[in-house]
Design goal:
The protein is an alpha+beta fold. The protein contains 16 helices and 13 strands. It has an eight-stranded mixed beta sheet, with helices on both faces. Strands 8-9-10 form a three-stranded antiparallel beta sheet, covered by helices on one side. A two-stranded antiparallel ribbon has the order 1-2. Bound molecules: flavin-adenine dinucleotide and iron/sulfur cluster (3 copies). The site of one iron/sulfur cluster (SF4) has 13 residues, from helix 2.
Length: 395
């Protein structure tokens, strides 16, 4: 029987299921709530195409960045509704103006995060904002391939592993394909996400369904963003991110996908033209020139990415910076999603009928050693900020 990559390395990109000529691979959820391929051996003809397109088995080369920028869209209304500086929307609008198509992640009517495409600026709006759950690819890779062959300009945006999966699935480069990856901390379990939504729904919305979650709800300063939950009858529940159990468990990797522990695709390895993330530490890097509503970190990995960025220069406020200056403030750039020490114990209890938010908070309670480590990290961070500020002032 055909053997796919090791489960621990599988990022769930769906390239294998998308390529199988027999349609014998389905993507199914495991007990933790992560999607993996499952092969029907009775239909398999051993063609090995699934392994040929698997990004976890492909040889990889890291990209040498051609430039790093601090940037934001000049339109503040867009920046406010984007996670950081709204770079995604700048690129999407450009592609739409060329009669192209944009692929991104949005909520479906059951609050699953799924991929689909958009041909208009109005439809692109649903992709705006980070959703901290792994997005389901469904049949988007086949759809992209079809559009590329028809000569349509395609912008595909997503996590580095999903971009790597698309590239290996396509098996050849296309001049009309543009790709933008997000800096990626890792993705949490979809099962935990739905359990958490159930808790919020009962606790704050009297059982009414949730119709939207804004992970980065910005009021005046993006650095103090909150989470906003919206119910189908338009009630709203806001919570500081430091008090939202799901967000805390995500950040502390209590229920991250196993492949994120040794991510093979970050930092341009996926082949993405641009890598886009948050420019944390903006006040140290740009002084008071950053946008209070959000500033993006943009790493250019290809000539095409640089050309594309320059073509949109009139819509962007952009400053060239040193990648090394941004690194200390953004763990997603260089750290792996090391599982929390209570991950196994969390998953042993998650189906026991307990309130998942209570369980998350219990599991995250830190012991003395961890508290000491956290304080040490805070001090290192503070010292690094002070050092940068001094260097910036001298320069
Ligand atoms: C799971 C995840 C983890 C992240 N971790 C970090 C991090 O550690 N450090 C950091 O600097 N930045 C991280 N980001 C990226 C950051 O939050 C912004 O998405 C990015 O800076 C783009 O912001 P924007 O303002 O340009 O546009 P936005 O309008 O915010 O762009 C949203 C873009 O993200 C895509 N997207 C949203 N949710 C998903 C999803 N679940 N899966 C795939 N694509 C998605 C949309 O399709 C769209 O292309 C992460 C994003 C995600 C989705
Ligand atoms: S070997 Fe071929 S037929 Fe079998 S699962 Fe893989 S792609 Fe499908
Ligand atoms: S192609 Fe993607 S989903 Fe399939 S085995 Fe490889 S990593 Fe997993
Ligand atoms: S950390 Fe790596 S493997 Fe995990 S979702 Fe992000 S890109 Fe994919």
């Amino acid at each position: 029987m055909i053997k796919l990559c090791h489960k621990h390395e599988c990022c769930g990109c769906s390239a294998c299921a998308s390529v199988c000529p027999q349609g014998c691979i389905s993507m199914v959820f495991d007990a933790e709530g992560f999607v993996y391929p499952s092969v029907d051996p009775t239909k398999c003809v051993n063609c090995n195409l699934c392994n040929k397109v698997c990004p976890a088995l492909a040889s990889r080369q890291g990209a040498v960045p051609q430039g790093t920028f601090a940037a934001h869209f000049v339109d503040d209304t867009i920046v406010r509704s984007s996670s950081s500086g709204g770079i995604f929307t700048v690129l999407a609008q450009y592609v739409i103006s060329k009669r192209g198509v944009v692929y991104g992640a949005h909520y479906d009517d059951k609050m699953n995060v799924v991929y689909s495409c958009a041909y208009t600026n109005e439809n692109v709006a649903k992709f705006r904002g980070s959703k901290y759950v792994q997005a389901r690819i469904n049949d988007c890779y086949q759809d992209v391939a079809q559009k590329l062959k028809q000569g349509v300009i395609v912008l595909f945006t997503g996590t580095p592993c999903q971009i790597a999966g698309l590239k290996t699935f396509l098996r050849k480069p296309y001049d009309n394909l543009f790709t933008m990856e997000v800096v990626c901390h890792g993705v949490p379990s979809e099962k935990v996400w739905h359990k958490h939504l159930q808790v919020i729904k009962e606790k704050y919305f009297a059982g009414f369904d949730i119709s939207n979650v804004i992970f980065r709800y910005k009021e005046n300063d993006w650095r103090s963003y909150k989470l906003r939950y919206v119910s189908c009858n338009n009630n709203v529940y806001d919570t500081p991110r430091g008090e939202d159990a799901f967000f805390l468990g995500f950040v502390k990797c209590l229920y991250s996908r196993p492949s994120c522990e040794k991510c093979q695709f970050k930092n341009g390895v996926s082949g993405a033209d641009l890598t886009v993330g948050d420019l944390w530490g903006v006040e140290m890097i740009l002084g008071n020139r950053g946008n209070l509503l959000g500033e993006s970190l943009v790493i250019v990995n290809t000539d095409r990415g640089m050309k594309w960025l320059r073509q949109n220069a009139d819509l962007l406020s952009m400053t060239e910076i040193n990648l090394a200056d941004a690194m200390p403030y953004n763990e997603g750039l260089h750290e792996m999603a090391v599982p929390h020490r209570n991950r196994a114990s969390f998953f042993q209890n998650v189906d026991a009928g307990v309130d998942v938010d209570v369980l998350i908070n219990e599991m995250l309670e830190s012991n003395t050693t961890e508290r000491l480590k956290e304080s040490k990290n805070k001090i290192i961070n503070l010292l690094s900020r002070i050092k940068n500020k001094v260097v910036n002032t001298i320069n």
